[in-house]
Recover the amino acids of this structure.
């Protein structure tokens, strides 16, 4: 476990030295990693930090408004790019190809904005497990591997590169950041796209965004999971009213973990699970079946793709 105060002062110095007199851009997602980076950098270089938030259209419900409100005191650039991302994902079903398409689109949008700002340095919230999983080649990580950076940055600064998630949370606490950010569940860079099996369409994203919201509402406060969410598995038969329908199959996933490298499913009382299932199928008419994922990591990953 790192000494958080020492870590904070060292990182501020590191950012100051690396940035020198340059402007620094970063992609701010609103998760704990990028938020901690933003606060450290704002303390180090003030207005020379330019955080860019890209709304990929694959974010959770209300996310963009939340970020806008949380970072109202720093000069956040918000880029609305949902249509662009959906167009890039059209027809792609292979999970790795989906990740690559999103990674590439993300970097194109980011480059476009960063160029406008004339920044020479890039700040990234990469943490230790991100590096390990990407180096291991298991799958391309949105915020490290597989990102074709065409822009010339004279420096890439990664102050959190040696920290585990719980250490980042400790740093967030020591920086006095809101509890809401400190204890925020990890959310993958490719967003809801990795929670939709197969091709991503607007309809599927809308369904899973709503289901995700219900799962979070039901489980976050009560169980404080490492992560809980909903995933869209595909279509199956169901009955609604007098009709046999083809409806969406939604999986609920809730796991505990220390660092995301391994995870265990949470033992949620059956009555609560059935209540969540009923809510999802009642509030989202196109859903006909809800299942609970009982798999640990390994053998499963936490996300579905
Ligand atoms: P998996 O699914 O590999 O996920 O068991 C482990 C942890 O990493 C998160 N995750 C990502 N985070 N970019 C990220 O920033 C990504 O591409 C990505 N993929 C998975 C996942 O939510 C879990 O916490």
């Amino acid at each position: 476990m790192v000494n958080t105060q020492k870590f904070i002062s060292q990182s501020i110095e590191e950012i100051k030295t690396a940035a020198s007199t340059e402007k620094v851009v970063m992609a701010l997602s609103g998760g704990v990693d990028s938020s901690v980076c933003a606060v450290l950098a704002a303390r180090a270089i003030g207005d020379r930090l330019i955080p860019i938030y890209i709304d990929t259209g694959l974010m959770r419900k209300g996310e963009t408004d939340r970020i806008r409100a949380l970072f109202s005191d720093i000069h956040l650039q918000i880029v609305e790019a949902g249509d662009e991302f959906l167009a890039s994902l059209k027809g792609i079903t292979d999970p790795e190809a989906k990740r690559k398409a999103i990674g590439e689109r993300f970097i194109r949008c980011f480059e476009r904005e960063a160029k406008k700002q004339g920044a020479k340095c890039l700040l990234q919230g990469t943490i230790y497990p991100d590096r390990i999983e990407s180096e291991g080649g298991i799958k391309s990580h949105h915020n490290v591997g597989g990102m074709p950076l065409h822009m010339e940055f004279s420096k890439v600064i990664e102050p959190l590169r040696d920290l585990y998630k719980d250490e980042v949370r400790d740093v967030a606490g020591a920086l006095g950041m809101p509890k809401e950010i400190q204890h925020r569940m990890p959310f993958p860079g490719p967003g809801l796209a990795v929670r939709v099996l197969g091709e991503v369409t607007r309809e599927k994203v809308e369904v899973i965004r709503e289901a995700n919201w219900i799962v979070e509402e039901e489980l976050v406060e009560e169980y404080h999971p490492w992560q809980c969410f909903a995933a869209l598995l595909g279509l199956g038969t169901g009955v609604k009213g007098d009709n046999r329908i083809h409806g969406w199959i939604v999986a609920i996933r809730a796991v505990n973990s220390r660092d995301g490298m391994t995870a265990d499913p949470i033992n949620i009382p059956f009555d609560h699970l059935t209540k969540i299932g009923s809510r999802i199928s009642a509030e989202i008419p196109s859903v006909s079946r809800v299942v609970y994922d009982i798999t640990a990591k390994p053998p499963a990953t936490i996300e579905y793709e």
User: Anything to note?
Assistant: The chain has a mean pLDDT of 92. Residues 141-143, 186, 188-190, 227, 260, 297, 301-303 surround xanthosine-5'-monophosphate (CB under 6 Å). The radius of gyration is 20 Å.
